[in-house]
Amino acid sequence: MEKPFYFDNCATTACDPRVLDKMWPFFKEHYGNAASHDHSYGWQANAAIDEARYELATLIGAKEREIVFTSGATEAINLAIKGICDSSDRKLKHIITTAVEHKAVLDTCRYVETKGVHVTYLPVDHMGRLVIDRLREAVQENTLLVCIQLANNETGVVHNLDEVGEWLRKFNIPLFCDATQAVGKIAVDVEQSHIDLMAFSAHKMYGPKGIGALYVNQKVRKRLQKQVHGGSQEMGLRSGTLNTPGIVGFGEAARLCRLQWREDYDRLVGYRNELEIELLESFPGLSINGAEAERLPHVINFAIPGVKAEALLLAVSNKLALGRGSACSSAERLASHVLLAMGAEEERAYHSIRLSMGRFTKQEEVGAVVQILKQQVESL
Ligand code: PLP
């Protein structure tokens, strides 16, 4: 049986074969522990980790010492939010986030609420964009942190944080950014956007699963309390033996993204435009969520009127791998909280489909999508 065409790159990307080649020796030959300071196995692992750290820092405009390796973006998000809340000895603590964050942020916020932290969930406009005035109104004297995603994992809507970050610096409030869907796909520069903490993950940028990072600006380092105790790796912020093969793969994935993201971007925007025109022509009343906002190049989130997303995705599943919004909420079979926050009716929030392309998406695959969908919609 032929494999279905893969259009779920927001859930995870294939690992680039060049990344795998680079990782392989670190399973087989260079298996030393980077914390072993007394022999060449350890030195080799340590040198490879330094190189990877350099690549990650270069990709996002940071310094090497500002990169903390974690097991993925979820852990990095937990470290950022809980770490900032825990280190503050204020009685009244307040943080601000948006209603359209990934569950990793929203659940962590719900958790800190149980510890007495007050959380403001900012609304977005009908295109899923941040309303900066609402943020300005929400900031209080006891605000410890503002958490805003760089790009939305369901709609691909991108938030421009340059202005927000600059404004928050005046109040000395750190900006934490979940950039899991953005790094490696669009230009990300922590200095330019005045980001203080930023989470991202290798498996969304053609690297391996199980490795991610938190960027920690030197200025907020002291305001972050570690969440994992032990051997004090990662500048004391995240203990545990480092995942050398994963980190090496992450570093190579970052290097490749630095060299290739622009080329991928241009090609994927072309595919997206082609697909959107075809979709709109083929299905009367089809709506593209977030269409007027700045978006990631590879994501289309759409709803076909009268068509149940779950039934359609199942019907095409031997030919197309598509998603229903975020992977986490589709497991729970809920309407998308992102689309609801954008003001979509329940029906549309429940039946929207996310199509996400990637570096390995081919023109002929893009050309086949609408035909496959049409056949199934007719038979449904
Ligand atoms: N944040 C966003 C925006 C995501 O899309 C995801 C994964 O889907 C995560 C966080 C969690 O990332 P990880 O799988 O690396 O824990």
Automatic annotation (TrEMBL):
Known cofactor(s): pyridoxal 5'-phosphate
Reaction catalysis annotation: (sulfur carrier)-H + L-cysteine = (sulfur carrier)-SH + L-alanine
UniProt xrefs under InterPro entries: Aminotrans_V_dom (IPR000192), Aminotrans_V_PyrdxlP_BS (IPR020578), Cysteine_dSase (IPR016454), PyrdxlP-dep_Trfase (IPR015424), PyrdxlP-dep_Trfase_major (IPR015421), PyrdxlP-dep_Trfase_small (IPR015422)
Residue ranges of every copy of the Aminotransferase class V domain listed in the record: 6-368
EC number of the protein: 2.8.1.7
Keywords per UniProt: Iron, Iron-sulfur, Metal-binding, Pyridoxal phosphate, Transferase
Family membership: Belongs to the class-V pyridoxal-phosphate-dependent aminotransferase family. NifS/IscS subfamily.
Protein name from the UniProt record: cysteine desulfurase
Taxonomic lineage: Bacteria, Pseudomonadati, Bacteroidota, Sphingobacteriia, Sphingobacteriales
